[in-house]
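Q: Sequence in, structure out?
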Amino acid sequence: MNNLTLEQLATQLESGDKRDRMLALASLRDVPAVEAVPLIKKVLDDENLQIRSMAVFALGVKPTEECYPILVKLLETDPDYGIRADAAGALGYLEDKRALEALVRAFYEDTDWLVRFSAAVALGNLKDPRAYDVLIRALESKEVVVQQAAIAALGEIKAIQAVDHILAFAQSSDWIVRQRLAEALGHLPTPKSISALKYMAKDSHRHVAEAARISLKRLSQSN
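A: Exactly. Output:
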């Protein structure tokens, strides 16, 4: 991409029309990270919340050395819970293990469930076994979506020792919880996992049954 086009995008990001700014931000998906991030930063404090959210997400998929500290600061200090949740998610996309501490702190200390949910998902994306304790704690959440995220994340970090904990959700009335469980067990090769998956392959909800069959196939191929 030539400099003129980058200059045009920079100008568009300063437009008084939010649609212009949004379109320019979307156009940055095709721009290399090192050139895109300085432009993304132009709208991190935009008056429009949707544009701010898009910009935060963009930092997670356009990684440069600047992105990590910006996202941690947003996660820890932004007054808007949606932006804090976006920052947590973006840190997961970066897959930078330095984010573990900030994400764990956000899970324990943030008062909004959406931020805790995003932190749990991001901890799974980091694939760092050190997230085990906080994810086990997340299973006790009152919010079902946080439980879903924790089950999935424990699978992502391949926490074999979590099998007994997550099998407690095999009879959950929420089919998405059961689906996440079936998916997670596919990463946790134990006899109990296989037994549970054979049972879940007959689940009344087709998405759960299909997830269980896929996980059984994955486990059989990994042997």
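The two ends are 47 Å apart (CA to CA).
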